Amino acid sequence: MSLAVPVPVRRLTQLQALESEAIHIFREVGAEFERPVLLFSGGKDSVVMLHLAVKAFWPGPVPFPVLHVDTGHNFPEVLAYRDAEVARLGLRLEVARVQDYLDDGRLRARADGTRNPLQTLPLLDAIAEHSFDAVFGGGRRDEEKARAKERIYSLRDEFGQWDPRNQRPELWNLYNGRHDVGEHVRVFPLSNWTELDIWRYIAAEQIALPGLYYAHDREVFQRDGMWLGVGPHSLPRKGEPVVTRRVRYRTVGDMSCTGAVESDAAGVDDVVVEVAASRITERGATRADDRMSEAAMEDRKKEGYF
Amino acid sequence: MSTLLRLATAGSVDDGKSTLVGRLLYDSKSVLADQLDAVERVSRDRGLVATDLALLTDGLRAEREQGITIDVAYRYFATANRSFILADCPGHVQYTRNTVTGASTADVVVLLIDARKGLLEQTRRHLAVASLLRVPHVIVAVNKIDLVGFDGDVYAAHAAAVTAAATDLGLADVRTIPVSALDGDNVVDRSTRTPWYDGPSLLELLEEIPAALDVADEAFRLPVQLVLRPQGAARDVRHRDYRGYAGQIASGVVRVGDAVVALPSGRTSTVVGIDTADGELAEAFAPQSVALRLADDLDIARGDLLAAVVDAPVPTRDLEATIAWLSDRVLLPGTRVLVKHTTRTVQAVVRDIVGRLDLDTAEITPADQLGLNDIGQVRLRLASPVAAEEYVISRRTGAFLLIDAHDGGTLAAGMVGEPLAEARCPQRRPAQYAI
Ligand SMILES: Nc1nc2c(ncn2[C@@H]2O[C@H](COP(=O)(O)OP(=O)(O)O)[C@@H](O)[C@H]2O)c(=O)[nH]1
């Protein structure tokens, strides 16, 4: 036996620290709220969020349902992934459908066809209908400048509105989740994660994702400088020739306005390398609707968007 | 293996904070092309000759319109070995509220001063807040060094004044750096224009500062968040009888076999298992999130504290505390509030207001009320006991919020103990504070 006793390095890596922080947040909400719900779309951020929720409550089940606000413009493989995950984990899935709102006239289709901004009303209605008091969202502060000001616990009034000028100060790791009847709290456990952290974590934890996050051949056409996949909800117009390209998606959402990027990153390690070297933010690269105005996200968030 | 460092910025308006943060983000290549395009476009629209990096930290519409920053914003950047979470704290209006918020989680405060002005009252206040919130490291960036002709004597005089003020306030680790945020001198790369300075650049310093105190020097504390008891809902039948006390370790190290005490009940038991979803651990340390299994079936619930049996805190219903009052309402003696301490929330009444801290002199002057942004010393009487410790001992078990029981708002940041006690009585500083 060696006489030298090794001094253990008791220091968390950055990913371990972020994971521990997120688990702490999940457990706080699980303990203090009556009816939490987790927004789950099958997109990578919501997948990581659910993975962390599973860890937080292990060996028990995740003690709340998941909610998908369905634009109706989905990538079929993402819906299949969503349903498989829900079944695997034995979760209850609630779906709020934008299509229902368009059908009965509560919402009107936008001229540009984009449905991402239409998700707010179905989301708020679902929250009210189920009396959800805490809503986990996968928003990250590195995504966008309005989000950079968002608290981890973000109080919403009875209209679901965010008042950025009147937020509660958030001190230490003491979260104040008090709210009145009819109000709710949006909770962002991934606030401090960056896109690269998400990918490194997916790699480290070997988390399965919908296949379209990895390079594949797809029929695409170019619009507004983005590659859009051909599908039932995104058809090329005149003068938009369809070509086959090797692409992957950096975000998934409304198929009609979410662009693919050309990529050979076929596995998670390739994606980590690619994201680390990328010189463009994921929203800038792939979300037509987010490029609209400097304050697009801020305005949407004030109205109650994710 | 990358580690995480949390920093907060502080500085008076126009000292160059936005420029410095923009420069850090830009030179560390954390700004991506489309973000830079946007900033270049706005710079051109405003008729500027050069790209204004300060625009990178632009936030909300109202802030752009008014040309001021209202609220703390969080920024992210990384180098090969370290990731940084930067709480960008605006310097005015809600200044105490913002700096207290940023400093509460910070490992490092980066404080800016203007090389033409040197140490101002505001600087002293920022240092006092860093000391009050017990931020382990402070870096003072003496900015706009280009505007004093890169004069080493000017820098040396400011550095000496700042260091003296910081030492008076009980800050153990304060470093100064001459920088030009505008031109980038000593921000990421060392400057050739400050030959009289042979220290690291700001980013180099941020990379080498220890991320946290050594957990081995701390006593074990775990506030129980919830009791994991899945029973019939367990996904694996072997866990039907599982009972684990889940929480994030607030300080110290725990090992299987350790004796622990549950507070406030005072009952003791032995740790028989440390669990995570990824498997059992032989030991765990702060700030890991774990679940502990104990040898005995104690009546433990959310809000209890599991602590090492030696030197465990004594639960109390009376708190002598320092509070940073963050509400527009005026605090008067007799006000009823909620105290949120670790995972426990209890009713309380503010019995007395002892005084108000004068941040300029670090003296406490008698006061009978506190207003927005005041820092005061108060006595609280609690409806039931909490296992609190002095904030100088622990930034976790010494911290609490005061919450408005009626509208739910956060009223104050609380720290157990007298304000700046270390500054007035240096021997009270715990050994592990100095690094
Ligand atoms: N010459 C010089 N000007 C600077 C420096 N840093 C900032 N400034 C200028 O000082 C002014 C205020 O800077 P800003 O970053 O907006 O200050 P903030 O209010 O602290 O965020 C701007 O005009 C900057 O261009 C510096 O190092 N040298």
From TrEMBL, chain B:
Pfam families: GTP-eEF1A_C (PF22594), GTP_EFTU (PF00009). Residues 2-214 form the Tr-type G domain. It is an enzyme of class 2 (transferase). Keywords: ATP-binding, GTP-binding, Nucleotide-binding, Nucleotidyltransferase, Transferase. GO terms for biological process: sulfur compound metabolic process. SUPFAM superfamilies: EF-Tu/eEF-1alpha/eIF2-gamma C-terminal domain, P-loop containing nucleoside triphosphate hydrolases, Translation proteins. Gene3D superfamilies: P-loop containing nucleotide triphosphate hydrolases, Translation factors. Its EC number is 2.7.7.4. One of its GO terms (molecular function) is GTPase activity. InterPro entries: CysN_GTP-bd, CysN_II, CysN_NoDQ_III, G_TR_CS, GTP-eEF1A_C, P-loop_NTPase, SO4_adenylTrfase_lsu, T_Tr_GTP-bd_dom. The keyword Nucleotide-binding applies. This is sulfate adenylyltransferase.
